[in-house]
Specification:
heterodimer, A: alpha/beta, Rossmann fold, Alpha-Beta Plaits, 2 domains, 11 helices, 13 strands, about 35% helix, disordered C terminus, B: mainly alpha, 12 helices, about 75% helix
């Protein structure tokens, strides 16, 4: 870190970013009017955003499309200059793009961020090594470790443009981590990948974080990524922060209910609405119902006491539903 | 100096561009043919028309001039306008901005690699061309000092072209498509006042004076004029001073545009 160890790896206060967007109505007449007098509107992509992220934390950054997640990552990594507000990342002002700062971070956006498209990944690694001034020993030990962890030995010498999406993503991660950044910005790292590959990437990130403890700020539309990797989440909508806290707290606040699945040995399950119980699925002896989370222990005890339970599971509602609820008009309680 | 070049990855990036160019051999051949075609057509045209008494160029002068035009065009060529505007549009500039490496250095290194590789195609073609016309070309005036001036003029010409092209390229921060602007400033005017279509020395006095003041002559005609032995040492030094002045001006313009451009850069795409 710059000069001294900071309490926070990332701090922003009153962060704003506006974009001027050109407008044009439909039709030739509108096009002509637009030619002589172009109309614009100003969009606040990020609005008065305050962030404090400790070194070594993994933070999930959630929000619908256009919420301002990627814009924030771009400001924090120095790609975009904020319209107003302050940012301090590892003691640096990102948009000054000091080389020491750039050597301390990595931004992964898609599979074309760091890899040289026309060369095989092994060539990109060698170039990266020179640019980041790694010693022979550092390079050899890190690259062999990353190749093992990411299982990319078979694609090192194939031209990058000819690799599959999953192979490219793993190689992209390898090159992004070669200089062991203290901060890793991940923008949709599993987008477009199949379920197996998503899981592989998630496991790799967890393993990598356990070993090297980088600070990770992650955006993803796959809630499994967020649930598996991040304890803390920051939710933004239309550039405004609407939640900042532990994932469990978000679940509790947004959804005071749990899902209980019951498989009976025989007979029928009877649950009264006034008991805070709402049936959502019924198939033979299998029942799924929503239940006030405070009533879960009591209800489970009652069910087991009947002696008619073949199986019983309790789970939180899917994170996707929960986040979706945050951004729809009928949201129950916005924290 | 060499250690500085190798230490921070410049040599590695230069080598990478060589490797990429070697991957696309066909493209290199097509560019080589493009560079040769027009000068050869122009040489044929100038040789076939009757010269006026005021024209200081003989057939021999035209032959030498157009023998060298493709080589100088290639050595001073820069692809920064096309590459940079694409990088702004598709967001690949983001990659360069996030590296601890001068973001515009890659464009210089790419041009160097491209121009050097192109010589492999150009030089054999030019040599064959020379074999056909060598009896009509006079090279007896060539001496080491002239060759040194010639090489220095090529380097300065390349820097001038890069500075002018770079300034146009950086306007991509505001202008969606800078290629048309590039075609006017760096294509049409360059071809006319740089001496591709007509050697600058054969211009009427007033137009020649304007051409000598502008930067374009120094990107193409000036090194050939030196090689042909048509310039006295004082004229050569005056030419160097004018070209270096333009390089300084456009370097400042580039720096100003870069600083302002980065503030407006929207970093679209991945």
């Amino acid at each position: 870190m710059n000069e001294q160890q900071h309490e926070y790896a990332i701090v922003s206060s009153g962060l704003n970013r506006e974009f001027k967007v050109r407008l044009k109505a439909e039709g030739l007449a509108a096009s002509l009017r637009n030619f002589f007098a172009p109309a614009h509107k100003t969009v606040n992509a990020v609005n008065n955003l305050d962030l404090q992220i400790r070194p070594g934390d993994i933070v999930g950054f959630l929000g619908p499309n256009g919420a301002g997640k990627t814009t924030t990552l771009k400001m924090l990594s120095g790609l975009l200059v904020p319209t107003s507000g302050n940012i301090d990342v590892l003691g640096y002002t990102p948009f000054n793009r000091d080389h020491a700062f750039l050597k301390s971070i990595s931004l992964v956006m898609g599979q074309k961020q760091n890899l040289w498209w026309d060369l095989p990944p092994v060539e990109t690694f060698a170039i990266h090594r020179r640019i980041y001034g790694l010693t022979d020993a550092e390079y050899k030990s890190r690259i062999s470790e990353l190749i093992d962890m990411l299982e990319i030995v078979d694609c090192l010498e194939t031209q990058t443009r000819k690799l599959s999406l999953g192979q490219r993503m793993r190689c992209e991660l390898a090159v992004s981590l070669l200089h062991q950044p203290q901060i890793l910005f991940l923008d949709e790292p599993t987008i477009g990948l199949d379920i197996l590959m998503q899981k592989k990437i998630r496991n790799f990130l967890l393993d990598y974080h356990r070993r090297f403890k980088p600070t990770i700020l992650l955006t993803s539309h796959y809630m499994d990524d967020v649930a598996a990797l991040a304890q803390r989440v920051i939710v933004i909508d239309h550039g405004n922060k609407v939640f900042d806290g532990y994932l469990n707290d978000l679940t509790h606040k947004m959804h005071p209910e749990k899902i209980m699945s019951v498989l009976l040995n025989n007979g029928e399950f009877i649950c009264l609405p006034e008991e805070g119980c709402r049936l959502i699925h019924h198939d033979g002896h299998h029942y799924r119902f929503m239940l006030d989370r405070k009533r879960v222990p009591e209800m489970a005890a009652r069910l087991y006491a009947t002696g008619n339970i073949a199986d019983l599971t309790i789970e939180d509602p899917p994170l996707e539903d929960l986040i979706g609820q945050l951004f729809t008009s009928d949201k129950p309680t916005r924290p | 100096m060499i250690a500085m070049f190798t230490a921070d990855g410049k040599l590695a990036v230069l080598k990478a561009y060589f490797k990429i160019i070697l991957t696309y051999r066909g493209m290199l051949l097509i560019h080589g043919i493009r560079l040769l075609l027009l000068p050869m057509v122009l040489a044929s045209a100038w040789l076939s028309i009757e010269k006026t008494a005021q024209n200081p160029y003989s057939d021999s002068d035209y032959l030498l001039y157009y023998l060298l035009v493709p080589v100088i065009m290639n050595l001073t060529d820069s692809r920064i306008v096309f590459k940079f505007s694409l990088a702004v549009k598709d967001g690949s500039l983001n990659r360069d901005l996030l590296k601890p490496f001068p973001p515009l250095m890659g464009y210089l290194l790419e041009s160097l690699a491209n121009n050097a590789m192109q010589l492999f195609y150009l030089l054999p073609f030019s040599f064959v061309f020379w074999l056909f016309v060598r009896d009509r070309i006079v090279l007896s005036h060539l001496e080491p000092s002239l060759l040194l001036y010639f090489l220095a003029a090529i380097v300065i010409g390349g820097m001038a072209r890069l500075a002018v092209s770079g300034s146009i390229a950086l306007l991509s921060f505001w202008i969606e498509d800078v290629t048309t602007l590039n075609l006017i400033l760096n294509g049409g005017i360059w071809a006319l006042l740089g001496g591709m279509i007509v050697p600058v020395a054969t211009f009427p006095d007033k137009i020649r004076y304007i051409a000598e003041l502008l930067p374009y002559r120094y990107m193409l005609s000036f090194p050939i004029e030196i090689f042909s032995g048509r310039l006295a040492p004082a004229e050569i030094w005056q030419g160097f001073a004018t070209a270096l002045g333009w390089i300084a001006i456009f370097s400042i313009i580039m720096r100003l545009i870069w600083k302002r451009g980065l503030k407006t850069y929207t970093a679209y795409g991945g």
